[in-house]
Amino acid sequence: MKIALITDTHYGARKGSKIFHEFFQKFYDDIFFPTLKERDIKVAVHLGDAFDSRKSIDFWALDWAKTNVYDKFQELGIKLYNIVGNHDAYYKNTNDVNSVDCLLSQYKNVIPVSQPKEYKVGGENMLLVPWICQDNQEETFEVLKKSKAKVVMGHLELNGFEAYKGQVMDHGHDPSIFRKFDLVYSGHYHTRSNDGKIFYLGNPYQMFWNDVDDKRGFHIFDTETHELEFIENPYTIFEKIYYEDNNYKTFNPLPYAGKIVKVIVRKKSSQADFEKFIDKIDKAGCVDLKVIENFAIHDEEVSLTGEECEDTLTYLNKYIDDSDFDLDKDIVKNLMREVYREACEME
Questions:
Q1: 47-65: per-residue pLDDT in tens?
Q2: At what angle do helices 312-322 and 329-344 cross, to 10 degrees?
């Protein structure tokens, strides 16, 4: 049987931004549910972080999630195994109070997964593993040892995989605890990566600038052949334009309507022509427009272009690496990463 796999949907993201949820909806209306209907898929697994905030959800965003996602699963007769991720759990040390249990109890087709347990999914015995925390870690490790399942699906934080493009996690659980299984599929990291056995599936759509040029979508898994098919989401909301004396008269701004745009200036001979170029993009109806002038930072060791500086985390990590202080730099990087993530979630 073929089943759908989706993860890290983060309903309520960006403080319940209507702009972002309208962007999300294009994926569900045009790609996700039409594919499930066409393939006659009746089972799906959500691998965690269905909702964005551990503490609360905007009522509008909750209604949006139910109307545009969970009602659709129900209407199509699709059984959904919804694994609890770290963003779904109210407390950091236990999954006992979580948004999946609290917000989706009206749906008889939704099976909440807040504790590690084997389920018969699409005809195959699978081990489903929610976010591993202080409260369930011992139980989870014991279940992993005893399980006879060949496939694991969960919301895991394992070291050695990319959390997002170009940033490899240097903390988390050791991947070796899952080596006994044939295949492991996980949510949590938003970029797709794998080591041949453990697969991080990535989230379905862009949410932050780090997601630019990184493919997004969902997967279809064949429980009989263990083949994994990636269905790409063609829609983007973040766009970069590299300006090198582009001809504003021939430039077509229409593809940037409804997008969040950065114009990165590499060459600008005429300020007047540049302003006409920018004005053309603005009038096309982009959601937000920022201009990054090409500049250089020079000192004895650092030489960064403006284009390179726009990757905030790369810049911060380099700054920490180059700094001379008596602290564990990995710990500082992790703290800055968490602060950056929280900042990105604010409007």
A1: 999 999 999 999 999 999 9
A2: 160
